[in-house]
Sequence to fold (362 residues):
Amino acid sequence: MADNVYVSNTINLAKYMKLEQKGKVLAEYIWIDGTNGLRNKTKTLNKKPESVDDLPEWNFDGSSTEQAPGDNSDVYIRPVALYPDPIRLGDNVLVMCETWDPDGTPNKSNFRHDAARLMEANAQHQIWFGLEQEYTLLGPDGWPYGWPKGGFPAPQGPYYCGVGTGRVFCRDIVEAHHKACMYAGIEISGTNAEVMPGQWEYQVGPCEGIALGDQLWVSRWLLHRIGEEFGAKVSFQPKPVPGDWNGAGLHTNVSSKEMREEGGMKHIEAAMKKLEGRHVDHMKVYGEGNEARMTGGHETSSIDKFSWGVANRGSSVRIPRQCAKDGKGYFEDRRPASNGDPYSITGIIVETMYGAISPSEK
Ligand code: ADP
Ligand code: MN
Ligand code: MN
Ligand code: MN
Fold:
């Protein structure tokens, strides 16, 4: 490990953050790269944008992000969602973008485009998603916070929803992130310490349609960005440490208008039948390295077989007890891994429930 790791000196920085911007606004353009990671760059604007229509398309060098060859490297970023910036404050904004190739087709890493078309085509079902994002905070050396150097902490038990020194680690980052998401207008619905020391969860949602993917990606960006200030690394790996520890998931809670209404359970059961038929296709887009997490132990189901049940945390899909009692509500797909792409996950769920749409012209 390099011992010259740089941690933000927020006290020195504060003086500059307060400087007058002379009417200009900073827009942080954020996009997803060719490795399921996040990138960003800053644009100075002459005035505050009111909507994404006020934001210019921009571009970057895709050969540096595994998104384009060196001899044809320009990739375009098109703004699709706009949020107040909790880091810079004022009129400054965060801008979520889609990536497009120069020939006018979506970049190979642009999974949002087709997901958005699926959401649009099924808008009448008013589909809500609530995702539970689990993650692990690591020191600059890549070892989880709260773990003895090169060793292991006491077995899991006291950490989940824990309080107190030695039980939870890095709560400052978690608090900062929760507030930052709220400021940005992200529908963050909660936060809790997880089963493994250094592991946490937050939930985004319910959000309708494509807004969930946009908000979840921006919430991940904020977590990385805040982590910089504390010198912490954020890991979205589904099994960050091998051994007798829970992995990290991205439980995906889903409901349609019909499922939320009286008698909705029959729509949930119909969805279960459809999900069962496409288990293998779903697992393909539910995150890389998920096989290390989905062992059938540690509150997961078998990776090979679809199952569902009321209040069962060992099945692929859980129907919450309260929903079974009410005869309506939502279901929880527990299969997605913490590093899964929310556009692909919510997209394939809608496709499986309501059918494919014609491919976009390429
Ligand atoms: P768990 O008991 O599995 O830990 P959480 O409370 O962490 O559940 O997360 C539940 C998620 O489900 C939240 O993001 C919440 O917003 C979302 N949710 C609640 N109701 C619905 C619904 N009707 N449709 C979709 N998502 C929902
Ligand atoms: Mn949860
Ligand atoms: Mn959890
Ligand atoms: Mn859950």
Summary: The chain has a mean pLDDT of 95. The pocket of manganese (II) ion (ligand 3) is lined by residues 132, 134, 194, 201 (CB under 6 Å). The first strand starts at residue 25 and ends at 32.
